[in-house]
Amino acid sequence: MLLSRLRILLLLLLLFINVLGKNRVAAFWSLSVCRVELQHVTLVLSAARKPKPRMADKRRQRAKQQSQQRQSQLPFLTEIPSSQLDFRKSSPPLTTTPYVPAKTPDSTRDNPAAPAAMSKAQTLLDAQRKSIAVLTAVRTSIEQKMSLELVEASLHERGYWYVDNFLDDHEIVQQLQDEGATLLENGMTPDMTNLGSGEYTVALAGGDAQYVLAPRSVEWVVSATKHVPLQLPSLNLDNTNCMGVMRTFDRNAYQASRTLLTDGDDQAEIKPRPFGTVATKEGDQRKITMRYYLVPDATCWNASSGGGLSFEDSETIYAVRNRLVLWKSDCVAYRPEVWKGSEEEGESLASCIELHLISTSNDETR
C-alpha cells in the first residue's frame, strides 16, 4: 500500500515537471499512468475495508443455497411442515391408534371353486409321487436282482430263471394284487384257451381308462419293458414294445365250472395241460416271457393251490407271492399248472402279470 502511494507521488511530480517544460506527450503519459494507479489503489482500499466472512456465515449461506436447490428440484417438499421440536418443553402424551390388520380376501369364501381346485392339485401330486415310486422300485429290483451273468447262465443251461421277493416294497405288491381284483370287476374276460379254469385275462395296454383302474400294474409293465432289455443286452430285446396281460383266478368261478363239467363230482381228476412254447408260429417275435405272481401270502397259499409253471424235463416253479419267473418264449416247453385256489375265507382270488418281451429283429435268439 505504501509502495502504491510513493508511485503516485512520483507520477504527480513528473506530470508537474512536464507541464512546466511544456512537454505535452510526456505530460499526457504521466497523467494516464497516474489514473490507472489511482484506480488500483481505490480497489485495494475498498477490498481492505470489506470485512472477511466468518466460517459460520459461510456454512449458513451454503445451507441456504442447498435448501433452495432441493426445493427447486422437489417442489412437494415445500408443503411439508417444519418439525418444530423443542426438547426444553415436556411433550404432550402421544395418542396411539390401535393396529388393525389389513383385510385380505378369503379365497375359499370369495372363490367357492378354490377348495376343489386345491384338492385336485394335491390328488395329482400324490398320484405322480406314487407313480415315480413304482417305476423306481421295479427298475431298482431289476438292476439289483437280475444279474447278467446269473440270468444268462440259467437261461443257457435250463431255459428259465426265477427270483423270490422281487419287489422290496410290500405295499406296492399289495396294490398290484388289489388291482387284479379291480380289473376282474371291470372288463376281464374268461381265458378262451382254458375254458372252465376260472382264469380271466385283460391286456395291460395302458390308456386313460385302464390307468384309472390299475395304475400300478401299467407302471410295472412300463418299467419292466424298459429296463429288462437293458439288463440283458445279449438277448437283443426291444425296450419300447411288449405284450402285457393281467391274469386273475377266481376260485368261486372255478368251482362253479367244475360242478357243471363233472356233474358235481368234486373228486374228478383234472387233466394236466400239454407242454408247449409260448411262441408257436413262424415270425412270432416273442423271445422272453415273464410271470410275476400276486397271490395271497404263504399262510393261505401253497403248492396245492396251483397256478405254477412246470418246465418239460425239469422242475415245477410254484406260484409264490412276489416271485418273478422268466423263460425263453420260443424254445422252452412249459405247462401252466391248473389254479385251484385257497380254501381260506376271503382269499378266493389270485393274480399274475404276464409280460412278453419281443426281439428287435427277426433273428432268432437261442
From TrEMBL:
Question: According to the UniProt record, where is the region Disordered?
Answer: 49-73, 85-114
Q: What keywords does the record list, in alphabetical order?
A: Signal
Compositionally skewed regions (Low complexity) per UniProt: 64-73
Please verify whether the record's keywords include Signal.
yes
- Specify residue ranges for compositional bias: Basic residues: 49-63
Domain of life per record: Eukaryota
Q: Where is the signal peptide?
A: 1-21
State the protein's name.
Uncharacterized protein
